[in-house]
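Page 37, continued from 36.
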């Protein structure tokens, strides 16, 4: 039974748990933190890598028509001129002259009044560019300014022909990449939802203009299926949000929104980008970005349909979905039931999939051997400290779906007790059957 009282309450509980259990915490905490930057601790990074791998498998490894790329974070500054980011990637801001608070005008309830101090003495609205700048080379002047990428997809466009030729791909095909993006967000907020450094997982699918809307609907459906079937999200936690306003070059755009603790928010965008990006890079590089269709002998600029999701938002969605508090029955008579905090991650992406626990110190060696045997197949942890009940609670809090206990019978019956995180049921499983048992439960095979 969930006993989380309100949505704000839930966000606070998630943030507290993430810090306590080493999942996510503020960057540079000893210096007071750094707004908009987050570190992933041991369990957070395990979760993040598992989700990255799942996305990569879903989008690249299991598809013949999508290939991968890992490009640099800093690329030629002309890239960002061509993409429009230098001239147009920003928010309209104004400052309160009294309390110095900076506001995004589109988020102000009353654009003539400071929501912080009530003053009406505001600067005129002006554009604030979100690109993060640095310098490349020994001279720190205007000519040596470079930008940290604001989206991972632009190098996919600039590398389009290199990848196409190297892989001998014909249209339609896609190029996918996972990597860091940087935006100097004015109001980073809602934990990791809006950060200044974050990871994107993007796929640009190139096709002819005639086929582009079919592909748009294909990817729209595929991506929604991924959330329900692979990440285990419920249908009521997800919704499509069609964009009302479209960029002049786009035929369609939709967001997949997730019900975060603060309400529905964008998790992923599926965008029809037309021929905009390749055409702009052709214009700025003076290189021909067109594609020659070998069947029809026609040359044309490919149209692009993009799927773009933030890894950090996926992790926040997973935490929101997985967080629960229920009542675990206590064995002590007259005592109230214990509150159990548990993360119900789907086993495939849990930071620890299998914890191995000796019932007593005397069994440490047997447990260690078992953990060594299975750690090649699953993310495992040897958990030897505290009483068994406390260890179960600790594993519940990081979302470990299966705990194996070695006890004094293990040596004689070659079996362990497997405890299920969600039902808390225990069953005895022979070690020779363990691999099949866990494969079945974790990967459904
Ligand atoms: N290439 C298209 C693009 O970047 P976007 O809607 O700006 O589109 C795509 O971003 C996804 O990246 C979003 O749906 C979100 O998941 C993630 N994202 C964007 N800005 C973010 C931020 N400041 N912090 C965390 N994730 C962010």
């Amino acid at each position: 039974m969930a006993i989380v009282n309100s949505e704000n309450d839930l966000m606070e509980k998630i943030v507290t748990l993430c810090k306590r259990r080493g999942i996510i915490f503020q960057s540079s905490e000893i210096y007071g933190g750094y707004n908009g930057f987050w570190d992933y601790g041991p369990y957070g990074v395990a979760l993040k890598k598992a989700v990255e791998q799942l996305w990569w498998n879903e989008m690249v490894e299991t598809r013949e028509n999508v290939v991968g790329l890992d490009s640099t974070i800093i690329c030629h500054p002309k890239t960002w001129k061509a993409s429009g980011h230098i001239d147009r990637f920003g928010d309209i801001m104004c400052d309160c002259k009294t309390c110095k608070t900076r506001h995004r005008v589109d988020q102000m309830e009353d654009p003539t009044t400071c929501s912080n101090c009530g003053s009406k003495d505001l600067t005129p609205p002006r554009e604030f560019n979100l690109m993060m700048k640095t310098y490349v080379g020994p001279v720190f002047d205007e000519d040596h300014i470079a930008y940290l990428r604001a989206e991972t997809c632009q190098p996919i466009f600039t590398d389009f022909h290199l990848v196409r030729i190297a892989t001998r791909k014909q249209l339609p095909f896609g190029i996918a990449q996972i990597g860091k993006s940087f935006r100097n967000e004015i109001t980073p907020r809602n934990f990791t939802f809006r950060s200044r450094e974050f990871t994107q997982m993007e796929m640009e699918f190139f096709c002819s203009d005639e086929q582009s809307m079919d592909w748009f609907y294909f990817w729209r459906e595929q991506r929604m299926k991924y959330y329900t079937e692979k990440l285990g999200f419920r249908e009521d936690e997800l919704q499509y949000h069609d964009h009302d306003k479209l960029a002049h070059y786009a035929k369609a755009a939709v967001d997949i929104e997730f019900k975060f603790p603060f309400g529905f928010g964008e998790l992923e965008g599926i965008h029809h980008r037309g021929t905009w990006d390749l055409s702009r890079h052709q214009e700025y590089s003076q290189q021909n970005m067109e594609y020659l269709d070998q069947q029809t002998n026609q040359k044309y600029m490919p149209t692009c349909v993009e799927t773009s999701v933030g890894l950090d938002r996926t992790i926040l969605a997973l935490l929101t979905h997985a967080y629960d508090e229920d009542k675990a029955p206590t064995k002590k008579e007259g005592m109230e039931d214990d509150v159990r905090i548990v993360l119900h991650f789907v086993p495939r992406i849990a930071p620890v999939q299998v914890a191995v626990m000796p019932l007593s110190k005397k069994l440490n060696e047997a447990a260690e051997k078992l953990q060594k045997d299975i750690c090649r197949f699953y993310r495992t942890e040897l958990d030897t400290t505290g009483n068994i009940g406390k260890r179960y609670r600790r594993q519940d809090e990081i979302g470990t779906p299966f705990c194996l206990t070695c006890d004094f019978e293990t040596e004689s019956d070659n079996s362990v007790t497997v405890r299920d995180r969600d039902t808390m049921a225990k069953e005895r499983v022979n070690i020779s059957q363990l691999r099949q048992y866990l494969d079945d439960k974790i990967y459904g095979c």
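The chain has two domains: 7-76+135-319, 352-443. Flag for discussion at group meeting. The pocket of glycyl-adenosine-5'-phosphate is lined by residues 151, 153, 183, 185, 194-195, 198, 200, 202, 266-269, 306, 308-310, 312-313 (CB under 6 Å).
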